[in-house]
Amino acid sequence: MEGLDGCGKSTQLEKLAKVLRAHDFSVVVTREPGGTAVGEKIRDVLLDTGTSGLSPLAELALMFASRAQHIAEVIQPALAECRVVLCDRFTDSTEAYQGGGRKLGSGPVLELHRILCGDLKPDLTILMESDVAASVERARRRNNTRAGRNGHWKTDENRFEQESRAFFARVRRAYLAIAAREPQRVVVVNARGTARETHARILEIVRQRLKLAAKTA
Ligand code: TYD
Question: How many structural domains is the chain composed of?
């Protein structure tokens, strides 16, 4: 599942997992950066607004370090057991954020993916399409609310959410370029409506791919 910060990926992943489990699939829901103990430590470094001066290449390397561990420890073992892996972000995020947003280009990202991730590709990638302004605003509101619930009324933005509109416009463009390059794998879903509407769109696509019965899906 891919998309801009605040486009509602996590909600959609949970809803999809619920439906698939109701169809007796064994489902693993995971995320990047993170998904393993080591990966979560790397995630802390990457997202902490206190992390300053991280170079774009170091950022790229950390994203892939987290991913290589995630594949070895979680994804490959799950696939070997024929489980369904629903992942909140994968290499398309790196191509969009570090390749597009940070202007490192797709070349190094795809090369590292080949070397470090054995070129592992999702069977299906849902790209949730939303507007830059609305998504980033939603991510900021969400994080502020989250922090508020914990009783700390401080901002809990991550390091990426502090980026400029221009950064996210580049991320969005890079995502759409990936979808245009790999239309079989990447399906673009309009995520501007309600969570319920987006869920119905996603379900329709997954239902077709997995040939699930419509009535229960
Ligand atoms: P997260 O809070 O999970 O974002 P969201 O829930 O909004 O998707 O933070 C992940 C951040 O890391 C997000 O801003 C995108 C960024 N990211 C990259 O820049 N490159 C990557 O390869 C990945 C996986 C994430």
Answer: 1
